[in-house]
Predict the 3D structure of the following.
Amino acid sequence: MATANNKTQCFVCNTEKNTYNCKGCSNEFCFPHLTEHRQIVDKQLDEIINNHGQFQQTILQQKQNSHNSSLIEQINEWEIDSTHQIQKTAEECRKTLIKLTQTLIDDVEKKFIKLSQKLKEIREEDEFNEIDLNNFQLKLTQITEEFLQSSNISIKDDSQEFIKKISIISSFDSYQSNHPTTSTATVSKNSITTSYKNYFPISIPAIPWNPITPLYKMLNQYQPPIKQKEIQIKENQFQQFGITVAGGNGQGNELNQLYWPQEIFIDNDKSIYVADYENHRIVKWKLNSSTGQIIAGGNQNNPLNYPRDIIFDSEINSFIISDKGNKRVIRYSDQNQTDQQILVSNIDCFGITIDQNGFIYVSDFENHEVRRWKQGDVVGELVAGGNGKGDHLNQLNGPSFIFINKDYSLYISDRENHRVIKWEKDAKEGIIVAGGNGYGNSLKQLSHPRGVIVDHLGQIYVADQGNHRVMRWCEGNDEGEIVVGGNGNGNQSDQLNGPAGLSFDNEENLYVVDQGNHRIQKYEKTLN
């Protein structure tokens, strides 16, 4: 490092001494200060090595958690929002198509009735000849062809973008030159067009045209282009064909309709209370009823704003509602719906549950935590998460619906981590009891789980929203089993479309909030 020179001035002490030249910095040092200088250089090397090690650890963590980045979350949100928009537009087109078809049928029927009257008249008058018969035959043929061909209604392809596209763009030009990283996601649209001037074309997602298939059937059978692996369904204890017990009449705000329902509560009379999200109301559907009754929200005098969840406090006969849009949890009296009490405010509330002591638990989606409120609490006690967004066992990432058992163990649908995590009383971290193997559709995986409930045997039921199925897990098992659904995204009685909330009635029948189909499905328990 250094070579000895004759007496010169030391760079540090400015004293004439025998000095040594440092080839690195080209300065002269006396022996004591040369040693000190060497120690400084050694320390700088140690810092570089330490920074190198820290950066190596950062690279390793990024490789292991690349699927949990904030950009992935944005893509997931885009996917959900786009699917919602497609379903909403398809429903509007179904309604338009039904109106158009009915108009066509009515028009043909009027012509047919008019022709029938003329046939009856000439038969009664007994005055007709071959010319009359030819005219009647020609008109009948024209009416028949008009009815069968439906030539004035068609699906027209439109090249315009239906869904706003997203792109992945890298700013590293040198890397891009050899590894192109820009990709886009778009959805094109088709439209139904008609020669009737009273109707306007509405856009729907592209559907392969088959002249043999009726238009309405094509609309109902449309599936988003998402491929899923075939999964063997294990034997279970519920009927596989659901019974629609609320909604099921398309999205809307009529009393026989729901619009993007979220969660439910079922009382001992099997009445169903639905958090009707997009209609900003809570609706009660009595057993075997074809319409619901608004018990909260739905008007300016009784405002709710995107209610997410509803539970019942049997001790004081009141409903507790997660009023997400208003960032609050409120209590409604069962006897007087105008009697409201704000229990929790300024919170991004999602799921709520109540324990046997009457303590209320609320999942905070934005802050990635669950808190418990006792009567009179202002802040609430942290019981799960609260360590920032992440996938460690002491963290949550977008907690949604929750469930608590008699042992005060809390089950949390950890939505963006694609898992259900169990947080025992006073625990500092949770235990993964379902999923936790990344986003996917194998029996070991979940995709954006929502509703979670636990039966008397300790079996965990999960609404696997992205896979359109309900899964059941036994704690400690590596994989779950499909209970209902799992037959692709659809509206048939053995299919689900983005299931959300779950509940049992007092006979252990399973109820599923079939969110995308705007209905509540009941799956009856079978005898073992």
In short: The two ends are 84 Å apart (CA to CA).
